[in-house]
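Hi R.,

As promised, here are both runs. First protein below:
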Amino acid sequence: MGLRKFGTVLALGAMLSSCAVNEDKSDEKTSEQGYFERKNVTPDPADNAQEQRKAEHAFARIALSCINKQYPNKISHVLNSAADVAPPSKLTPVFYGCFDWHSAVHGHWLLTRLWGQNIVPDMDAEIETALNANFTEDKIKGEISYFSGRDRTSFERPYGIAWFLQLTAELREIAGGPGPKAEQAQKWLFRLRPLELIIADNIKDWVPKLAYPIRIGTHNQSAFAFGLFLDWARTSKDDEMEQLITNKALLFHKDDRICPISYEPSGEDFLSPCLMEADLMRRVMSEQQFATWLTDFLPDIPTDGSADWLAIGIVNDPTDGKLVHLDGVNLSRAWALQGIASALPQHDARRAALLASANLHGDAGEKSVSTPHYSGSHWLASFATYLRTQRGIELQDTQAISLPEQELQDQ
């Protein structure tokens, strides 16, 4: 859609050729700091090729190297008995790598996205082998068993399960196309379907009980998750989910005014509360309704095309797993700004400033993807891939619901 210029392609040679610098040191300390200092990408044999490679090659390499990397690992796990004391690969046999469950999920989504879109065809065989090794019936049964355990209905809710639905939405789109990739995606989707049903049912049980939106900039934020829930519902033609999320989004946010975006970001944000809410609302309103709502919600968006009206998030210590979230907020802001602009009328004077700021944030965020610190490298590539491939926008070009004004007021 040409909404942003991606800038200079990342130089991969320096990043990938130095990946194994610390990997073979037998006396390396195993502290958290030591783990974070390790490069989290393995050398790519093609890295010495004469022609410059795409940034997406590096993104794929990062995901391939971490989806089965069990340690270090941060798990949010309820112990019901001694039987629940087990390594992550036993507890959740598919999604145990990349430091935590949700990062493993969107690492698999990243690979599926690049594979299905034919973006790195020279890596297709490697990606397919990795996904096929993890998307097995036995391993998925292990995931189902974990989700079915006592006191686990809130596990990875809403962020991780939103990414899981993004993964199956991706597979469903590939499966609907032609050729051998479609056939392979159908097999993987069929195996994941039972887990998808459990997760979708959990969401349908939870959302009606949610009395208030969750307006934070980290994993529990409801606006970001609702957007991905909607994208999945429309892709999978789950009308019940679509109506549920649409109604709740309107109930929570249709009367919101003057979002305090000047307070953002907080020190550990990787999602903008204001921009992610707007990115959700453009999914559930017609073009004109959204344009009017946005005027009240973010009244200070410039009309002069300026880019610096929203300051870029700053990371002072990329080895700190929480502070490095600000690299992610730059990437997620960029895709939200693009999404907001895409939903406005072509003549809307705010579009230029939204896209200019998206470019600024996207460029800053993509530079952070090459961090050698595992605290950032295990997840930032997924955010960069979501941005580069304009994932949330392509799904929504013709999907916005046009509600009569009176109906909108009565929601």
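And here is the second one, sequence first, then its structure tokens:
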Amino acid sequence: MTINIQIDYSKFQVYTEYNTENFNLPLILSIPHSGQFFPEEFLKVTNRSIEELRSNEDLLVDELLSPLFNQNITAIKLNTARAFLDVNRDKIELDENMFDDYPSDLMIYENSRCRSGYGLIHRVTADGQAIYKAPLKFSEVQKRISNVYEVYHARLNELILKCVDKFGFCLLLDCHSMPSKICSIMQDDSDIDICIGDLFEQSCPVQISSLLEQNIKAKGYSVYKNLPYSGAYTTFHYCQPRKKIYTLQLEINRSLYANEIKLNHNSNFTKIQKDIVSSILETLKNIDF
């Protein structure tokens, strides 16, 4: 048995964008993993419930950062669910075992994320349960790339170039959340509240990442740089320091602001939202580009 999905991509609103007509500040927020749109055709070929599939998403990150949209900050959010397609991966981060007709001559980058089931096309949910009932046709991943992945990244690239054209520089903040479980595993003596990834000081001047770190720490949070994440595809792909295009990956411990089981806000959501938003704005005001 092989899964051959026929998805109507005309129903997709791939992304939602904010404040993209007139850049007021040299900052772009990328929010790639908070989408909750699942194609009906996809849901028919999965073993998992929507709640199980949503365990792969960056829970409520778009809502957490939404006050920045009212501060004239430019942002782009993928609407499609992460379990369907992960745009924070390279197009060749694929697990060939997921397909019954994977081209033998096609180059892949089967790294640890792919082997764990979290490549471009997720194989498993956050708790390791198989997403698909059978192998996929390789043509399906190609359709997802052309109809979702390339659409999102083409627009993100346009926004970056537009920002650079206006200000001479751009800071791209790639916004994510991380499960509290991985934070506990990585750090035994205390939880990691916030992780700032700058590819070990390669994706932007250290003054920028350190300033954001200091502003968040000043509000009482435990902040680590490049632990447990130093940055993934977006952080690596778009950073061009010589052209003054800088990138940072921001990871927020979900347990700070949400119930990870019920997938909703906890009582601290408003406070965490205020602290994160103000830290970003304070950093932006004091960056000397």
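A quick note on the second one: The mean pLDDT is 93. Let me know what you think.

Best,
J.
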